[in-house]
Amino acid sequence: MSDFSLSRRVALVTGANSGIGQAIAVAMAGAGAEVICAGRSDPGETLNRIAAAGGRGRKLTLDLTGPVAGLDVFGQTGPVDILVNNAGMIRRAEALEFTEADWDAVMDVNLKAMFFLCQAFARAAFAREAGGAIVNVASLLSLQGGIRVASYTAAKHGVAGITKLLANEWAGRGINVNAIAPGYVETNNTEALRADPQRSKAILDRIPAGRWGAPDDIAGAAVFLASPAARYVHGTVLCVDGGWLAR
After folding, report:
1. CA–CA separation, 169 and 184 (whole Å)
2. Alpha-carbon distance 136 to 164, whole Å?
3. Residue 232 annotated as catalytic
4. Would 132 be classed as within a structural domain?
5. 20 to 30 A Cα–Cα from 20, which one of 8, 45, 142, 223?
6. Which DSSP category does 185 fall into?
7. Residue 44 and residue 117: Cα distance in Å, rounded?
8. Is residue 134 part of a domain?
9. Which domain holds residue 117?
10. Of 152, 184, 224, 244, which is the active-site residue?
11. C-beta separation of 210 from 16 below 8 A
């Protein structure tokens, strides 16, 4: 069996109903995993794509906007080998105008929920004396400041830091914890940027690849980090950005 195969693995992907999460879920199913598509929205389209390609998937209704630590997520799913923390949101406003509500909403989903899902995953894995892989979806704004996205930038810096912390604590116990930092990808989160001709042109002018990324461009990196091929990869933040940071 190939080191890049996810055969006989079960993966839980949050925010799998569209965009990057959907692409990751379909790719992991294509690599052999059974994929649990988790989130508030119906992942029916994702499950249809998985089934059409001959893969296996199921859904889990999961609201990450409220308390997460008390949710018995992995008690509902059965054993899970791979966790992909993809669910997230963004709020845009000048720093002087940013509200506490917009700060809290983004931090709760993008950082707090991510941490407590990692915690629950590890507790379940250690209880059954198993290892696993966690792939967190970070951002270029884990490494840069951005503009008009204060809480998103803070949360994504936090995702990178927590990824490294958990790798330090859990690498020796058989759990690989890594993150992907997507560049500018055509998703709902970037719709406002793509609709602004000046911002869109400025972004494209800096991307050596000469185009916005597609969700499928991110999926292969997630499969790799979840696979046995990445067995000695711990605490990395893998940028998939069309060369943005190299510019």
Report:
1. 31
2. 11
3. no
4. yes
5. 8
6. B
7. 23
8. yes
9. 10-239
10. 152
11. no
Residue 218 token pair: 């991110």
Tokens of 65: 């906007």
> What's the token pair of residue 93?
């406003």
The CATH number of the domain holding residue 161 is 3.40.50.720
Element of type H or E holding 77: helix 73-77
Query: In this structure, is residue 47 part of a structural domain?
Result: yes
User: What whole-number distance in Å separates Cα of residue 48 and Cα of residue 27?
Assistant: 13
Cβ neighbours for 127, distance < 8 A, ≥ 6 positions apart = none
Query: What whole-number distance in Å separates Cα of residue 179 and Cα of residue 161?
Result: 10
Task: Note whether residue 131 is domain-resident.
Answer: yes
Count of domains observed in the chain: 1
Please report, in tens digits, the pLDDT of each residue of the chain (247 residues total). Answer: 799 999 999 999 999 999 999 999 999 999 999 999 999 999 999 999 999 999 999 999 999 998 887 689 999 999 999 999 999 999 999 999 999 999 999 999 999 999 999 999 999 999 999 999 999 999 999 999 999 999 999 999 999 999 999 999 999 999 999 999 999 999 887 888 888 888 889 999 999 999 999 999 999 999 999 999 999 999 999 999 999 999 9
Distance CA 132, CA 247 (A): 35
What is the Cα–Cα distance from 7 to 12, expressed in whole angstroms?
A: 14
- Dihedral of CA atoms 142, 147, 149, 152 in degrees, nearest 10, equals 0
